[in-house]
Structures are given as structure tokens and as C-alpha cells.
Amino acid sequence: MAPPQRRNMRALLVRIRSKLRRTKIQEPEPVRIRLPFIPPELWGIIIQHACLFNHDPLDTSHELSFLESPSTQLATYRASMATKKSLSLVSKQWNALTRSFLYEFVWISRAAQAKALARTLLMEYVENLPSSGKHIRRLHIETPALERCAPADLRTILDYSPHLYIYSDHHSVQRSVYDDSPDPRCSPEEILKLVVHPKIRRLSWTSYDDVPFELRMAPLGSNLTTRLEYLELSSRSPSLPNLSTILSGSSSSSSSDFGHLQMNVQLPALRALKVSLDNNTFAVLASWDMPSLTNLSVMSSDFSYTGEGFSRFFQAHGAKLTQLELGHSSSALEEYYLTTPQHLLVLQQQNQNQQQPAIPLAEWCPNLREFICSADAEWHWQSPDWIAPHILLPSHPRVELIGIRDIDTRLLEDPMTPLDARDPYSGPESMDDKLFDALIMCDDADTPCFPLFEQISSLLRRDAFPALRFVRDLSAESHQMRTVRPHPRVLQFWRKVVARCAERGVWFEDCTGVNITQRALRRATLPGDAP
Question: Does the model's pTM come out above 0.70?
Fold first, then answer.
């Protein structure tokens, strides 16, 4: 081929290739944004706020009142831990900044979690790494009965948690009476010594054996707990008391036997005390110095509300109380006292010529402002015209607020209320106003859960509680039944209760402290208003 022809063919191939060749799309180079330098201190504050869920788990000042339900639940804790874990995996710097928030609040819900945490702290010590235990500020142990924590694991966790100031044990530590050679380092006394230190502010302690209370709580006598604000004491004894001893009342010590039960315990900052103990233990608590005590939740484990120890405690500390919760319901006490224990018979004989009650709680607690009881009250034959909120406190001249628990249980006991009343009402989409008023306000209609309605009405008697201004429903389940498409009988009950309170000039509140009004009850029946 001649050279000119070759040049023509070469030019033709070049043109064909240029047409077939895909044009490259030039992508713009990514713009690199350089963030300004942020000091680690500011990153720590940002991460701290990102880890908070509705509240600060280390701030328990609002939990000193027994009217408030605990703000920290297991579901909330797990959601918070998931966020903290995600933040810790962003970078090495964030991991170091998040570690303190990751360990500040530890909730143990299974025995395996306690063992894993104890192993982590031990391996950090063996490998000479910074201890994560120094970040632990709050330790909450609440497990099922078959998943209780081993004392050795708990001892290890406490050994490496020097800055702990909130400790809660809710019957979740293994204790066996058949252990022949228990580790002395893991005894209840040694565990309590690790917990009781000057930094502790909140303590929930459970006794698991029959060792006398004054011996078990001996570490408190060192007077180190100067900042303790909340104390919860309960007993989970493996042995059952003799029934004949309880019914005869001989288990209660006499007045001359309480001398050896004195303890030199000083708790200058203690403001809230929750106890579930027996008569002798109340006598021990009577000797404690608690000048700031104002809130008390009490449940006698042997029903010795007329025992000498119970009276000694209230005579020593009752004048300081402004809030009192009686854990046992009136019906439980009535059932127990049907046997009429011997110590009660003696007390009744002493007071048979007097008009004052056998248990003068109103006199022992003259400054009481808030009272909490159960809705499980019964009729009493000595006062058939009304139902007292509690058999131990039928009246008080200064009580301004009464909280009632377990209202939802009593509502479900109404034979005409369906068992699925907690679920949204599956009736018509909306209720006609005339039908609503006729169903609720008709005086001739029967009242749902009549005993409960009469109990609440009895609270409004001016001669019983002349200073009463608020009545509060402390049941979250009852709030759900009332606000989420309520059943007509449940709505009828609450309309009558709110109307009766309005006649007396008393506000009825829900579990959050918000007033319940007729307008709010009517709004609950509207379609699409349920959350």
C-alpha cells in the first residue's frame, strides 16, 4: 500500500477510535472539610450529654420522696448503654472519653454479668492497665431468684470501685445456710465494710440470715456515712418464724430487754428511710441518731405494729416525719389481728377506758404532711359508715396529700369490669356527649368498685383530714386504664371520684402529679387521642 493510502487509513482508524471511546466523566475531588480543633474537655461534655437519657442516673435527689417512682428502668438503662457503646466505637479518642460514662452506672441483671465485670477488673489489674472500676459510681443489683450474684464476684467488683456512692442490692446475692466453710472475705460484714465509706450517699441493703440486726449492721457504728441520704433495709431470712410464737406475740421483747439493742449510729444527712424489719429491729433503729429524717416507708415483717419496738421508734423519730408510707394494707392487718395476739390484748385492756386509739400515730407524727397507703382497705365493724385509708392512721389534722397505691388492682376486681380493661376500649369510636353524661352522672346508676369509691370518699371527710388538699393515684397501670380509650365503667368510676373531690375542694392527681379533670376524662374518649 502506498504511503498516502496508509496515512489515510491511519487517520480513519484514529477518528473511529475517538468516536467509540467513551468520554471520561471527571468527578470533582472531594472537598476536605477541616473541623476546627475542639479540646478534649469539650468533647467530654458533648459525649456526656449524648449519654444522658431523660435524667442523670447519678442524680438521685428527686428520688428521696416515696411519691415518685424510680426514674431508672432496665429498658432505659439498656438503651442508654447501647448509645454509649456506639459512641465508644467511633475512635480511640472517643473510646477514652466515653469509658467513664460507660462504667459510671452498672446494672447487674444476671449472675453472668457480675462474673464478667469481675473478670474484666481482675484482668486489668493483672495486665497493669488503667482500672475501669475507678469510674463506677452507681451499682444496681437486681436479678431473678435463680440468677443471684456470687459473693466472690461482688467482693471483686467492690474492691476495684473506690468511688462508689450509690449501692443497691435487691435480694440478688447468693447466700446459703448449708455452706460449711464460707470465704470470710465475702461475708456480709466484710461486704458492708466496703460499701460503708464517707462517699456513700444511697444504700439499699438486704440481710439474708438470722444474725441479729445490731450485729449485722455493726460497720455503721464507725460513723463514716456522714453523707448518706437514703437508706433501705430489708430482710430475706431463709428460715420461717414459728407460727405460735408470732400469734402469741412472745417474739417481741419486753421493755427491759431492749437495753442491749442500743447502737451508736449517727446519720446526720439521712432524709429517707425504707425498712421492712421486725419489732426488735425497730427498737434498734430507735437508738440511731437521724436528725434530718423526714421521709419514712415502713413495713413490719412480723406485723408487730403494736409492739414495743415499733412504738419506741415512732416516739423517737415520729416528730421529724413529714412523709409516711405504711406498706401493709389494712386488709392484711385485719386478717392478722383476727387471731388477736397476746400483746394486742394487753394493750387493749390498758386502753379500754380511754378514747385514744391503741396506736396513736397521729400523736407520734404531729408534723406529717404526706401519707401513702394501699387501696386494699376493708370495712371495719367499729366504723361501718366509712372506710379509713389505713387502720393505723384513720385521721390526721395536718395531712395535706394522700397517695394511694394499687388502684388498678381494685378496679379490676369489680365484677362488671372486663379483665382486658387495661387494653384500649374496643367499643364505639367515640361516645356521644349526652350518653357520656347520662352514663357517668346519673345518681341512680350503680358505682363501679363501690368499696374503693367509698374509701376515697372517706378521705374527703373534714373531721378525718381537715387539711387535705391533694389525693394522688400512684399506679401507672391505673393511669393507662384511665387515659387510653377507657372502658365505660372505669370512666364512670373516675368521673364520680373527680366530682366528689370537686365538692370537697380537693384536687385528684395522676401518678405524675397532674390534676385529673372532667375535661381530660372526656378527651380520653375521643377517637385518635390515645398515644
Answer: yes
